[in-house]
Amino acid sequence: FVQGLAAGGAIASLGLWPRPGWALKGPGQHNVLSGTEFDLTIGETPMNFTGRVRPAITVNGSLPAPLLRWREGTTVNLRVRNALPAGSIHGDTTSIHWHGILLPANMDGVPGLSFDGIHRDEAYHYRFTVKQAGTYWYHSHSAFQEQAGLYGPLVIDPLETEPFAFDRDYVILLSDWTDLSGEALF
Fold first, then answer.
1. What is the mean pLDDT of residues 32-53?
2. Which of 19, 43, 162, 185 is buried most, with the most CB atoms less than 10 Å from its CB?
3. Quick one: pLDDT at residue 169?
4. How far apart are CA 145 and CA 10, in angstroms?
5. Selected residue with higher pLDDT from 182 and 39
């Protein structure tokens, strides 16, 4: 099912409202972040999808994480802060991997491979030039946090305008939810 709808969340969090152009936020698009400067906070938020309240990993309190909208050729700065509570069942460190994005290894967001991860109460500054266009997603590579909600859509608008006209675009992010821990699911 579509996660935002199942949560009774805003359709806007899925990018389903009309978008007049790049880097513009339209009415009802509360979970769309666009431009080149981003402040993202990873934390836990209680969620109830099945009749049982469970802690989910969220970005800026949102599940799925906000839609990030970039433009090819720009340099993006993403300041990601770890606000996971002490004793979290989701671990002490976190990360964001920019899935399918061409970037330097130390910006790839894979703990133990490209960096140490983002420790509790610390931040990491991802900075890179966007070299492509298309629709992608971002997610955690830490402690099964992706399965607990740390994932979101990523749209990169092309440098050149599209050779066709459109009134709006839609981003549909399909997901599911389980009350099992990520470890048990794995």
1. 96
2. 19
3. 83
4. 22
5. 39
The DSSP call for residue 154 is: E
Instruction: Give the separation between CA 12 and CA 67, rounded to whole angstroms.
Output: 10
**Residue 171: closest CA among 146, 186, 185, 151:** 151
Which long-range contacts (C-beta less than 8 Å, at least 24 apart) are formed by 5-14? 6/49, 6/177, 7/47, 7/49, 7/63, 9/63, 13/62, 13/64, 13/66, 13/67, 14/64, 14/67, 14/153, 14/171, 14/172, 14/173
Distance in angstroms (rounded) separating the CA atoms of residues 68 and 75: 14
pLDDT band at 18 (very low <50, low <70, confident <90, very high): very low
| Number of residues in the chain | 186
